[in-house]
Amino acid sequence: MNTPAPVEVGLIGAGPWARAMHARILAAGPETRLTAVWARRTEAAREIADTYGAVTAGSPEELFDRCEAVAFAVPPAVQAELAVRAAKAGKALLLEKPLGPDLASARAVADAVAEAGVVSQMVLTKRYQAETRDFLRRAQEAEVTGARSCYLHGAFLGGEFATGWRLEQGALLDLGPHLIDLLDAAVGPITSIRATGDPRRWVEVTCEHENGAVSQASLSGSVRLPKPRTRIELLGPGGEVVYDTSVIDHEEGWPVLRAEFAAAVRSGRAGELDARRGLRLQELIDAALR
User: Fold this and answer.
1) Is it the case that residue 162 has pLDDT exceeding 80?
2) Looking at beta carbons, which pairs linking 188-191 to residues 24 or more positions away fall under 8 Å?
3) Model pTM score
4) Beta partners for 230?
5) Structural domain tally of the chain?
6) Measured distance CA(129)–CA(135) in Å, rounded
7) Where are the beta strands (DSSP E) in the chain?
8) What is the pLDDT of residues 253-288, one digit of tens each?
9) Which domain range does residue 166 map to?
10) Based on the domain organization, do 194 and 240 belong to the same domain?
11) pLDDT for residue 169 is more than 90
12) How many Cβ atoms sit within 10 Å of the Cβ of residue 117?
């Protein structure tokens, strides 16, 4: 049986997340090969490209010409604009959350993906962990009356991830997609959602689910903790089902993400974590804000 050729991926973005994750993981292969990098800061793009033997593209269109798939590691507004162009160019998309800075831009990306018929996949990092998948399997077997959850860290207090859009939009748009995605998948489809508080400091989200369960989520990027904390407790008559990322080795998820994206590109069939899922999460966040 012949091994498929590595998917040639172009990377848009050269910030801390691009350096820490996208470039390193995509270049490591064997399922993918990093072929080109473009960023508005040419020197930053060149530094990444030179490290991994890729080309520094002079424009997004030049990057599109040098790859068959595009990975994004840029602010939501930039992703929303360039992802539409990449989809129209026929490129598969590896997309960050949130899909866009607002619902309209997220819908434009999802519509462009659907119209072009290209493969898309969201970088919802926790979904590629074995522990997360085991939790979701256990959740399907549980009768859930209610759920408590949190996603808390102090990245907004300073450092290279305290970037403009995160500080302006806060935890709901940045951390919310991860936790809302897991609650929607574990407890059941969310039918109503509302948020209170200040997303730049602390926000509480209450969800009502299709099966009658109620869940709550606490979100903050502005609290000092020894390490980021993500925890979900599903509670019901049969006992509790707990998910806690303190026991997870996050490095184990990246090869899974890479392999599943490459397999989707080669088969031409996206998985469940595609742009439509990204749009679903953006719709829920928009509803919570209203």
Assistant:
1) no
2) 188/144, 188/213, 190/284
3) 0.96
4) 151
5) 2
6) 10
7) 7-12, 32-38, 55-56, 69-72, 92-95, 120-122, 146-152, 190-198, 202-209, 214-220, 229-236, 239-244
8) 999 999 999 999 999 999 999 999 999 999 999 999
9) 130-247
10) yes
11) no
12) 9
